[in-house]
Amino acid sequence: MPVKNRLAEMHGDITKWRRHLHAHPELLYDVQETAAFVVERLKEFDVDEITPGIGKTGVVAVIRGRQDTTGRVIGLRADMDALPIEEATGVDYASIVSGKMHACGHDGHTSMLLGAAQYLAETRNFDGSVVLIFQPAEEGGAGGLAMCQDGLMERWGIHEVYGMHNMPGLPVGEFAIRPGALLASSDEFEITITGKGGHAAAPHDAVDTTLVASHIVVALQSVVSRTVDPIKRVVLTVGTFVTDSVASNVIAHTVRLQGTVRTLDTEYRAIAEERVRRIAEDTASAFGAKAEVVWTPGYPVTVNSDAETAYAAEAAEAVAGKVNDGTDPIMPSEDFAYMLEERPGAYIFIGNGDTAMCHHPEYNFDDDAIPAGCSWFAEIVERRLPVA
Ligand code: NI
User: Fold this and answer.
1) Which of 150, 240, 331, 385 could form a Cys-Cys staple with 258, CB 3.0–4.6 A?
2) 1 has pLDDT over 80
3) What is the pTM of this model?
4) Distance, CA 60 to ligand 1 centroid (Å)?
5) Multiple choice CATH, 5-180+302-384, 3.30.470.10, 3.40.630.10, 2.115.10.20, 3.40.50.300
6) Mean pLDDT within 111-137
7) In angstroms, rounded to a whole number, what is the distance separating the alpha carbons of residues 109 and 167?
């Protein structure tokens, strides 16, 4: 069974919604207009319940099947927020908001979930209920966590939950997924090294924090290479190195380092934190300086549960004729991880073809992916909640 005919018919409408959202990007929790657009469409589709304001500006809606003998409830999730990037695509529906852009395709995700909602509300060919989850603040604001903290899973009685992200490089209409860890956790650290500033020609009177910080940067590279089991995946990157020296003949008093640790193995989050703290503090101490480490935990590992991954892959195969169900995990992180911590479920990649990578000013969502994406959402529901 390929793309659903009704959804192929709706392709033009859904593309219009997508391009409207693309032209009007909003950031983090400030997605009021996007949420209002979602609510307007859902009202037109005559869904059974609409609740805005979950997780600040998220929207939750319910569609009941033609029967409900099982009490089963499936959650389908899309993200709504854009990025603080100046668009450079040159398309005629490009962002009209300076410095903001849908550079991660969340306009596509929201539109595809709306398309699936219209189809499911029209056909109701399922036994149970579907909860539509439109979340704010995926890009660093933990909007998924905020929705969970507002009781998303309990209030709507969700049993399993599914989400989707477009993937540049994967052909349009194709799907890729894997059981277990699919995307990495993302934690951040900031190390402030304090020594004693001074004249570059009198280093014996100073404690040179540039030298200390350099040793720390090099030693931090041993966290992954010497602490982590070589078959596990952990990345540590120091992204900034800022001294307070303003001249070539000044020894810096303080240096600030910022970095990130990504891993597909949850156990390494705590191990990496402990190692980063010890290396920073003890290295600084060895040079007579002081290091202060601030560790900020970010998104958890996105872990697909086994059974739900198989259901998601079967639905994708039904839509696309094939599915890659053993794709490699990748090291970016994803806020849907919080929902997968609360309920079994799966996250899948849908092909976005030969475009610039997500978060690039020339990235654009490919509207040709819409019928497949909508069909996958609908297919999951009809397969998991079959009408007897
Ligand atoms: Ni994204």
Assistant:
1) 240
2) no
3) 0.92
4) 19
5) 3.40.630.10
6) 98
7) 12
